Amino acid sequence: MTVARVTEIICGSKKSFHDAIESGIERANKTLSNVEGAWVKDQSLILDNGKIKEYRVILKITFVLKD
């Protein structure tokens, strides 16, 4: 029987939401084993004087626990 866990991470990028997602998944893979899925829970922007300073995403990362 497979058991999985879901953890939530917040990622940011100065380029785009897509870049924030990719960097978050890359970082999660450095710490977590058996990462099998991810979904975007939320997206937001950090603004500075009305201009986009950072794109942020909240990701839910699914990974399978080892036996």
- Residue share in β-strands: over 45%
Average pLDDT reading: 96
> Helices and strands: which structural class?
alpha+beta
Strand order of the largest sheet: 1-3-2
Number of strands: 3
Tell me the number of helical segments per DSSP (H or I, 4 or more residues long): 1
Q: Regions with pLDDT < 50 over 5+ consecutive residues?
A: none
Helix amount, in percent?
10-25%
End-to-end separation? 9 Å
How would you characterize the overall build of this protein?
The protein has 67 residues and is of the alpha+beta class. Helix content is 22%, strand content 57%. The protein has one helix and three strands. It has one helix at residues 17-31, and strands spanning 4-13, 35-48, 51-64. The chain has a three-stranded antiparallel beta sheet, with helices on one face. It is elongated, with a radius of gyration of 14 Å. The termini are close together. The mean pLDDT is 96.
